[in-house]
């Protein structure tokens, strides 16, 4: 009679376990050797806990049922049993040591950031990620690209709602990439489950982590440390490429960035700056100052018809470059390049009826930054 | 001396029989238990340091 029960239990367990994997209840196996190690460690410890649970609760429920009062069971009243006490102390010690050995081995691998082929600095900012490929002169911001209309419920949610960015972090497969992680303002946490990386980024500290991705693909994650009002709107997207593809991407990126640097010295037209400025504004500024520059008081002032800003050009430029100490406005001198800064200041001085006609040249901004 | 070490080791894992406890309280001075306990704790710490050094290699 007890056989069907056991079978039922086994089947239920097997089904629920595979279901857990399929539904994403369990952690993902991931796409790096280390993420597999971590997954296996997690499952090993999970099954140890399951077995302990079954034994302990099994013994408990069996005793409750078998020796119940209704059947006339009499309680034992001996005081001590040193052998049993030593056993139930020693067995957990052995189990804990047995779990500590594989756990320590995995931890050691996680902390071994030596011999990296590529160094990437990851900087958390309110509310975006900035990636700098160290020694390669390539750096960019990665902003969420989910439109605000979707967030405000005016449009249908897209496929990767809140998990899409304008520029993903591009990484090569089969190479060891070391992450150096910090933040500009408050504590953020860079988390990509498929890569088994979840690391706090802390202002004034540099944390290290690393990945060596096995399979090309797009891996998504989120900020995992509450960092302010738009904490939910700074996703992480990693695009892992074949090595040759990555090398050509990096070369292309480098050239584009050199082109951009050369753009500082040339004279820009109002229309070009406005077009560029609008995209910078949407990506960087609109999360606080809102899409039409209407602001969100009390923290985020309106930019449309902001008379002090319109009247005082130098002050406006200074606020964008150096931020406002003690307020939510950060300094953008290292987040945006001179062309982007000039474009966005030009845009905000001419959009939404501000119509000052001012054209801010990138060369002037570069000069201000250098001061 | 061996019985003192055994008592201290028993205290370390928190298991001791009542008979032994009565024995310890009736004979022997507290100081010898305290000194033995400090020495054994130091040895325990050194063992942990040794294990950590081996594991870190």
From TrEMBL, chain A:
Residues 1-22 form the signal peptide. It is found in: Cell membrane; Membrane. InterPro entries: CcO_II, CcO_II-like_C, Copper_CuA, Cupredoxin, Cyt_c-like_dom, Cyt_c-like_dom_sf, Cyt_c_oxidase_su2, Cyt_c_oxidase_su2_TM_dom. It holds the Pfam family COX2. It catalyses: 4 Fe(II)-[cytochrome c] + O2 + 8 H(+)(in) = 4 Fe(III)-[cytochrome c] + 2 H2O + 4 H(+)(out). Residues 19-114 form the Cytochrome oxidase subunit II transmembrane region profile domain. SUPFAM superfamilies: Cupredoxins (SSF49503), Cytochrome c (SSF46626), Cytochrome c oxidase subunit II-like, transmembrane region (SSF81464). Binds a copper A center. Gene3D superfamilies: 1.10.287.90, Cupredoxins - blue copper proteins (2.60.40.420), Cytochrome c-like domain (1.10.760.10). Residues 115-252 form the Cytochrome oxidase subunit II copper A binding domain. Its EC number is 7.1.1.9. Residues 272-352 form the Cytochrome c domain. Its cofactor is Cu cation. Keywords: Copper, Electron transport, Heme, Iron, Membrane, Metal-binding, Respiratory chain, Signal, Translocase, Transmembrane, Transmembrane helix, Transport. The chain crosses the membrane at residues 44-65, 86-105. It is a multi-pass membrane protein. NCBIfam families: CoxB. Subunits I and II form the functional core of the enzyme complex. Electrons originating in cytochrome c are transferred via heme a and Cu(A) to the binuclear center formed by heme a3 and Cu(B). Belongs to the cytochrome c oxidase subunit 2 family. This is Cytochrome c oxidase subunit 2. The gene is coxB.
UniProtKB/TrEMBL annotation, chain B:
Pfam families: DUF2970. The chain crosses the membrane at residues 31-56. Keywords: Membrane, Transmembrane, Transmembrane helix. This is DUF2970 domain-containing protein. It comes from Vreelandella zhaodongensis (Halomonas zhaodongensis).
């Amino acid at each position: 009679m007890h056989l069907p029960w056991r079978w039922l239990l086994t089947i239920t367990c097997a089904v629920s376990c595979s279901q857990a994997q399929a539904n994403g209840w369990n952690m993902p196996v991931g796409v790096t050797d280390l993420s597999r190690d971590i997954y296996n460690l997690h499952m090993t410890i999970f099954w140890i806990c399951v077995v302990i649970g079954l034994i302990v609760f099994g013994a408990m429920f069996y005793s409750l049922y078998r020796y119940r009062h209704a059947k006339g069971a009499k309680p034992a009243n001996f005081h001590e049993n040193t052998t049993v006490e030593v056993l139930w102390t020693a067995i957990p010690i052995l189990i804990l040591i047995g779990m500590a050995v594989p756990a320590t081995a995995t931890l050691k691998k996680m902390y071994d950031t030596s011999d990296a082929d590529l160094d990437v600095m990851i900087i958390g900012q309110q509310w975006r990620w900035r990636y700098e490929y160290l020694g390669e002169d390539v750096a960019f911001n990665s902003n969420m690209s989910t439109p605000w209309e979707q967030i405000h419920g005016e449009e249908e949610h897209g496929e990767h709602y809140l998990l899409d960015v304008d520029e993903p972090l591009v990484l090569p497969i089969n190479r060891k990439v070391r992450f150096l992680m910090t933040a500009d303002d408050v504590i953020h946490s860079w988390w990509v489950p498929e890569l088994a990386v979840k690391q706090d980024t802390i202002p004034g500290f540099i944390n290290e982590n690393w990945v060596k991705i096995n399979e090309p693909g797009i891996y998504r994650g989120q900020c995992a440390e509450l960092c302010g009002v738009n904490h939910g709107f700074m996703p992480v997207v990693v695009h892992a490429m074949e090595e040759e593809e990555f090398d050509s991407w990096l070369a292309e990126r480098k050239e584009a960035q050199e082109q951009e640097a050369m753009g500082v010295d040339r004279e820009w037209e109002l229309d070009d700056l406005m077009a560029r400025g609008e995209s910078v504004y949407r990506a960087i500024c609109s999360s606080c100052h809102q899409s039409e520059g209407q602001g969100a008081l009390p923290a985020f002032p309106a930019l449309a018809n902001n008379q002090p800003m319109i009247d005082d050009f130098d002050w406006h430029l200074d606020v964008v470059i150096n931020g406002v100490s003690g307020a939510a406005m950060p300094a953008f001198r290292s987040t945006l390049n001179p062309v982007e800064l000039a474009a966005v200041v030009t845009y905000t001085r001419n959009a939404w009826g501000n119509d000052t006609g001012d054209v801010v040249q990138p060369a002037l901004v570069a000069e201000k930054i250098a001061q | 001396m061996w019985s003192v070490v055994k008592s201290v080791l028993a205290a370390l894992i928190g298991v001791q029989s009542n008979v032994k406890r009565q024995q310890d309280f009736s004979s022997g001075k507290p100081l010898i238990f305290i000194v033995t306990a400090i020495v054994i704790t130091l040895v325990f710490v050194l063992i942990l340091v040794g294990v950590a050094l081996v594991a870190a290699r």
